[in-house]
Amino acid sequence: MTPFLSKSQAHLLFGTLYRKPRSEEMQRQVNKVVQNTSDIFVRIHEIEKLDKQEEKKNQKSFQDIHHFSLLSNEERKRNGSVNPTNSSFSSLPKNKPLPALQQEKEKSFYIHLLFKSFNFFMRLFKPSLNLTDLWNEQTGVMKKDFLGRNYQITPKAQKTFSGIQEDVIIPTIQGFRAAINHLWEFTEILEYNTFISAYQFFMEYIKFERLFQRYHKPQEWCQETISMQKYYAQLIRYPGYSDVLLKIFPQFLASSPKYQHLKVPVKKAMTHIIELNQKSPKLSHVIQGFYIINYKKFITWKEIEKILRTKNHEVKSLHISKKARFMSILKRNLLLRQYHSFNKKMKEAKIVREQYLSEEKREEFQEKHLLPLLQEFLQRIYKTKDISTDIIQSYMFQPNRLLFAIMKDFDFNYLPLFQFPSMIRTLNNKEIKSRKVCIFNKQFFESQIIGFRDLFHAIEIYNKKNPKLTYMLSEFEDDLEKSKIHPLTPHIAEFHQLIQKAHSLFQDFISNIQKTIKNHQSQKNSSGEDTSVQPNLNGKLHEKMDQNSLRENPEPSYISWSQNMILFPSRYNEQTVKQVIEILLYHIYNYLYIFQNQEIMYLVRNSETQETLTRLKQEITRLGRAINESADDDDDDDDENNY
Fold first, then answer.
1. How many Cα atoms occupy the beta-carbon half-sphere of 139 within 13 Å?
2. Which pLDDT value is given to residue 462?
3. Helices 166-180 and 189-205 meet at what angle, rounded to 10?
4. Residue range 172-200, pLDDT digits in tens
5. Residue 272: which residues within 8 A CB-CB, separation 6 or more?
6. Residue 126 — pLDDT band, cuts 50, 70, 90?
7. Which residues are registered as beta bridge partners of 152?
8. Which residues pair with 144 in a beta bridge?
9. Residue 426 bridge partners (DSSP)
10. Contact 608, 327 (CB under 8 A)
11. How far is CA 570 from CA 126, 255, 433, in A?
12. Distance CA 472, CA 341 (A)
């Protein structure tokens, strides 16, 4: 043995030594060394030692025979040496030759006896045409012994257990083990489970190259290869397993710089596995031959599958290692949370599109709602009802002026609802009365109110600093795209920062208002009726609800006075609280849409969201989990036991 061998080189050397042709006795000694020693280097040393001893022994016997053949007859007689091949015959007495006629009679008698015996044996051992014979003619797996009664496995069939070289086996195992932990992320369940079956079969298959030298009985062949039989029967049941082994598996290795050097040997090994079911004799036929010889009757492959208890291919869950299973559960739960988050956004988007805004209704909103708002705002500033169209247009299509007008209108018409008690019309003892109440909890909207004041002041200062700025909405929309690549001019960039703050502020208002509406709806559903609509003769219920709205952390409750009319000198005078809230939400959503808020634009143009939702659903299903559309996020986190 060459010193300083690496472990992989030692394995190659050991495989070569182990496959070396030997006598039965020598092979038993070699097997004994392998069984008693686990260290690869010690195995090599002991096998080489046995081979050297056998070579010396053979060389000595050859020298003795050669020396004997060189001696003359006189020397052999002198030394008392006798040709062993002729000694037994020389000691026999020599018979006298028989007369010619008697020799001829004896010769004819023996010939007659020979033909008679031959016909008897032919009749006795004449093979009958049966299923086994027909199957064997097609497959060529077996041959008959010299009497023509018992079957044996042919040398050609025995070669199905060999053919993969040691320099291919080791990198193939490395490739399998690398793919086990990562291939599940890129393949379907069926494809990954096909790959696992191939790995299990390969690890068993490479053990049986010298099967027919170690075991000699058909029963031993069946028993020793039982695991390999199970995995192979499972593998060839998977549809398209050749594509998984020849395309998906090598492509995965080639895509990784760490494993791409394994692609060539892996492809050789996978080609060999596929050819086991293509070239004659097939491995399935050889296994079938084991059973036919062992049971001494014809057995079909389906019967063998029943003996092996072969299951149908799995398409619902991954056959996966513990490490990969843990990783897949983490990924699946993350995808579930993303899915339900996107699904929630989709439902919200549907409500927003149907109730508050639509891309097609943008001009309608500007005409129906934005124009009266600007007219009212400008009349209040200029103290006149006659406002020129040019002034109105300048505010409608210049985003810096439009934002100021919107904030001013919000400050006059809507902010008082969140800050101060409002005058409402109530029904008490069947009499209509007016009273001041707090519709919203001021503390609940305190941060938004402070943020509004700061932003409104910043916009006023900005417009005073840039009185001659002419900046159109179309330019603003173009700059939103350009700002992702090129920086904007300082005064335009400053305005874009103000817009971002306005987006955040309006979104906070929407979020808190929606929470209040949700609380109102949950209480209404739990009680079965909207108590805030009912006439109250003593007013105690409304007082209780009013107190609840004033709490710092209000519990889920009805919107106080939701069906009562607000008395206020504005556009929403004598409209109910519920109607005013809906109008407010409608305006805020459209403000965000006009100023190109990304989340709102995402809700309106929801094709990307729908594509993401479909992709997530497919990925979660691939990881073996059905989607529960009605479940909440918290209900869908799973553990390994439910996987």
1. 23
2. 94
3. 150
4. 999 888 888 777 777 777 887 888 888 98
5. 163, 164
6. very low
7. 143
8. 151
9. 433
10. no
11. 115, 67, 20
12. 36
Residue 320 pLDDT? 62
Place of tokens 């809700």: 603
The whole-number average pLDDT for the span 156-183 is 86
Whether residue 59 is predicted with pLDDT greater than 70 in this model: the reply is: no
Alpha carbon distance 369, 356 (integer Å): 12
Cα gap 370→586, rounded to integer Å = 12
Q: What are phi and psi of 153, to 5 degrees?
A: -75, 130
**For range 141-159, the mean pLDDT:** 80
φ, ψ at 437 (rounded to 5°): -140, 160
pLDDT: which is higher, 250 or 562: 250
Residues 391 and 398: their CA atoms lie apart, in Å, by 11
Q: What is the pTM of this model?
A: 0.49
For 200, the token pair is 């299990």
- φ/ψ of residue 214, rounded to 5: -85, -35
**CB of 450 closer than 8 Å to CB of 583:** no
User: Are β-strands 151-153 and 142-144 bridged in parallel, bridged antiparallel, or unpaired?
Assistant: antiparallel
* pLDDT tens track for 387-430: 888 888 888 889 999 999 999 999 988 888 888 888 888 766 56
Question: What does the mean pLDDT of the chain come to?
Answer: 76
CA-nearest of 262, 248, 258 to 192 is: 248
Highest mean pLDDT among 204-213, 280-289, 521-530: 280-289
Cα–Cα distance between 629 and 643 in angstroms, integer? 18
Beta strand 565-566 pairing with 422-428: antiparallel
- The letter for the amino acid at 564 is N
Beta bridge mates, 514 = none
The one-letter amino acid at 384:
T
Taking only Cα atoms into account, the Rg of the chain, rounded to an integer number of angstroms, comes to 47
CA 441 to chain centre: 49
pLDDT band at 634 (very low <50, low <70, confident <90, very high): very low
Q: What DSSP element (H or E) covers 435?
A: strand 431-437
Give residue 340's pLDDT: 75
Amino acid at the residue 164: I
Length of the chain counted residue by residue = 643
Helix axes 301-308, 283-295, angle to 10 degrees: 80
- Tokens 């004819």: give the residue: 108
Structure tokens belonging to residue 89 = 């015959």
Query: Distance between alpha carbon 537 and the CA centroid of its chain, in Å?
Result: 64
Of all residues in the chain, the percent with pLDDT exceeding 70 is 71
* Dihedral pair phi/psi, residue 76, rounded to 5°: -65, -45
- DSSP assignment letter at 91: T
Strand, helix or coil for residue 433: strand
Task: Tell me if residue 423 falls in helix, strand or coil.
Answer: strand
Query: Which is higher by pLDDT, 321 or 159?
Result: 159
Question: DSSP 3-state assignment of 114?
Answer: helix
